[in-house]
Design goal:
Layout lengths: L2 H11 L7 H21 L3 H12 L7 E3 L5 E3 L1 H12 L7 E2 L7 H15 L3 H22 L9 H4 L1 H12 L4 H13 L7 H4 L3 H21 L15 H5 L6 H4 L11 E2 L10 H14 L6 E8 L1 H7 L7 H4 L3 H11 L9 H4 L2 H8 L1 E5 L12 E7 L4 E6 L12 H12 L5 H12 L7 H6 L1 H4 L2
Parallel strand pairs: 5-6
Antiparallel strand pairs: 1-2, 3-4, 5-7, 7-8
């Protein structure tokens, strides 16, 4: 089979008119969610450090927006890297369950940077984003679950998604797109060792994947060649990630629906693997008026991969707390929320949270091998008086089968960007995204931001 060529041809030939109404609507949600996460995340230390380093390194000036309090324009590579890093910093970015990763902070910063550079229309931007999600998720499905033990999918397959979106906006031919994917694949990286230290590497994964995708697209346009069989080749990406990859998942039913339609959005500022458990804790609290100090013990049941990534009873850093199901569920019971305000040094050392973490056990729950069930979780709570409560969550809040309301999506965007951009500008963007297909030049919609950031 020629999976790389099949995918390249699909990306090149995809038209806005091919998209479903739902795919267009979901793309708009992804775009607004990305902007909120990127602007809010721009205040986080990893994002600030990235901007300083890129500035000190003499990165070229250009017309692509870098979203932050001191908003400015830069070259497409600088913008994609900085915005991708920022968008992943709060851990509130979107997820596609079958991908085990986050397409938004890699595909969208690449697409936006290139769209501004070439003066793309709203329809062209939407189509490129859909193409990027399609490429990223399908390639991920081909190498999961095996690759996920070592490799952070957002980073590895993210490079392909960013390359597809950027290449689409540069109007690459099928042959050029083939080389574009080849260059993206040879740069794919991102190891999970950072979890042990709660290190900043995860944000670098997203930013660098976006950067790598943009670089691959522009190089290909200049005639730079890459491996033509980067996906299916004997020494290609998929076999490097998994001994026997599921290559058929790359091309099967291509064009029948769109992977972006399966996007989930995060109401909580932590790893998505924990969201169903948090949702369950909040529902138990609402239903039974549970008081945290009256809890004797907690048992958390989750999918094996969720436990592998987030079963961490002793997180060492504030960022590490975002990957601790014990911390996040305890915070839900004690604080009543697990938003960005739940993660700081004071909360990390809160004796009430620490007590609940110390009485929390975990266990494996696996109800099926179906990708849509990977977030299934169960929570059991025993009270000091012996009363027990149980809650099973099939789909966490924000999943397409348990969606956040349109109002909640807009409020999330406004809350994340509040204090960094003026509310008036944020509402202009929200309105512009709603009507994105009528936008003649994406750069015009984004230009006003540099006059309204604080």
């Amino acid at each position: 089979m020629e999976e790389t060529r099949t995918l390249a041809k699909y990306i090149v030939e995809l038209r806005f008119e091919d998209l479903t109404v739902n795919a267009v609507a979901m793309t708009k949600n992804c775009l607004m969610d990305f902007l909120g996460c990127c602007i809010g995340g721009s205040e986080e230390p990893p994002a600030r450090m990235m901007r300083r380093v890129m500035g000190e390194g003499g990165a070229g000036r250009g017309n692509a927006t870098v979203f932050c309090r001191e908003a400015y324009t830069a070259d497409v590579f600088h913008a994609a890297l900085c915005n991708g890093t920022a968008a992943h910093a709060l851990d509130m970015d979107d997820v596609v369950n079958s991908c085990f990763g986050h397409p938004g902070p890699v595909v969208i910063p690449a697409a936006l940077a290139v769209a501004e550079h070439v003066g793309a229309s709203g329809k062209e931007l939407i189509t490129a984003i859909v193409a990027g999600y399609e490429a990223m998720v399908r390639i991920a499905e081909a190498v999961l679950p095996d690759s996920y033990f070592f490799w952070h999918t957002t980073s590895t397959v993210g490079a392909f998604g960013a390359a597809a979106a950027a290449g689409k906006l540069l109007n690459l031919s099928t042959e050029q797109m083939l080389h574009c994917l080849g260059s993206a694949g040879t740069q794919a990286a991102g190891l999970f060792e950072f979890l042990k230290d709660g290190a900043n590497s995860k944000t670098l994964h997203a930013g660098k994947a976006a950067f790598n995708g943009v670089l691959s697209a522009y190089l290909s346009r200049e005639g730079f060649t890459g491996a033509r069989r980067i996906l299916e080749g004997e020494k290609g990406f998929c076999r490097a990630m998994m001994k026997v990859p599921n290559l058929e998942k790359i091309g099967n039913d291509l064009g029948e629906g769109f992977r972006i339609e399966a996007t989930s959005f995060k109401p909580y500022a932590c790893c998505r693997w924990i969201h169903a458990l948090i949702n369950g804790a909040q529902l138990l609290q609402e239903e039974h008026a549970i008081q945290a100090e009256e809890i004797r013990s907690i048992c958390l049941g989750a999918y094996p991969t969720a436990l592998n990534i987030t079963d961490n009873a002793e997180p060492k850093t504030v960022y590490g707390c975002k990957f601790s199901m014990q911390y996040c569920v305890a915070a839900a019971f004690v604080l009543g929320q697990v938003g960005t305000g739940a993660f700081d040094e004071e909360k990390m050392e809160d004796s009430r949270i620490r007590r609940l973490m110390s009485v929390t056990k975990t266990r494996v729950v696996k109800i099926s091998d179906a990708p849509e069930d990977v977030n299934y979780s169960e929570i059991d709570v025993e009270m000091r008086d012996g009363t027990t409560y149980h809650k099973a969550i099939h789909y966490a809040l924000g999943d397409p089968k348990n969606p956040m309301s349109p109002e909640a999506m807009i409020q999330k965007f406004l809350d994340l960007a509040a204090g960094i951009y003026e509310e008036k500008q944020l509402k202009v963007w929200a309105d512009g995204i709603k009507k994105m297909e009528s936008c003649l030049n994406v750069a015009d919609l984004l230009a006003a931001d540099r006059d309204s950031s604080h």
